[in-house]
Amino acid sequence: MRLQHKIAIVTGAGRGMGRAFALRLAEEGARVGILDLREEDAAATVALLPNPEQHLALACNVADSAAINAAFAHVHATLGGLHVVVNNAGTGTGPNDGTAELYAAMAKRHAELAAGGPAVTFVDQTLHMQDEGWRAVMGVNLDGAFWGCRAAIRLMAQDGHGGSLINISSSSAQSGEGPVHYVTSKAALIGLTRGLAREVAARGIRVNTVAPGPTDTPLMRGIPQEWISSLEKAIPLGRLGRPDEVAAAVAFLASDESSFITGSTLTVNGGSYFL
Ligand SMILES: NC(=O)c1ccc[n+]([C@@H]2O[C@H](COP(=O)([O-])OP(=O)(O)OC[C@H]3O[C@@H](n4cnc5c(N)ncnc54)[C@H](O)[C@@H]3O)[C@@H](O)[C@H]2O)c1
Fold it and tell me: 19 CA to middle of ligand 1, Å?
């Protein structure tokens, strides 16, 4: 119960890792504001938590700074404060971002190799990516985390106490594997964490990054199987991560047990990359 009397927000907590983070924080005693695009998904997570009546489910698109400000203020007012924020909401695709062309080219190249011939198909995404596709992924993954940090810092500054902010990056930031908008956004989160950590340390607000490796969630299930298999083979511990394993790292950084850690990146990736 390391988070008793703490109020937390987890974005994108209607499924996947965000749901596991919310569950773990609640199991440690926190009351949690669960934000997701659809309120019913957020509510489904709340129903799984201990003492569901103590938590709050809200619809919130993290790419919209006004929506973030309103949702954070609502959690703060309703649950009675804010101490921990996990900026988890993320996406690997956006409209017209070349994903369809990329997957088609990957399948073609795979077939060329399977037929024993040379692989002559280029695997391009950037060639096909429209501005809106780039903006959509940056808007959720990077802007969304910044809006979340900013809203939290404003509330914590007003309350005059510290807190713990955790940005969910990815091992893609280290490896470069994945769509270029996704990789860029996840690498940028490490810079955001480091800059903010120095800026708000005097207020007692700590800011850290968790960088999961490939983890078994609905997001992964949208990726072609051959890509997942090759990712899995490259993991020294020999398997995908589980959401609860990443949640253990998040709970540590949320709690006072990590009281002298700020600006860091904690990798949870089965040994694939070190930082
Ligand atoms: N699964 C992996 O292998 C993996 C690896 C490294 C990092 N990550 C990162 O971990 C985080 C969680 O990933 P996941 O695998 O659980 O994904 P997921 O797709 O299973 O869940 C993401 C959740 O975020 C929500 N969401 C998406 N856009 C949103 C928005 N604009 N506003 C509010 N909510 C939004 C979705 O509705 C969904 O509930 C993401 O930031 C992802 O990039 C995932």
Answer: 10
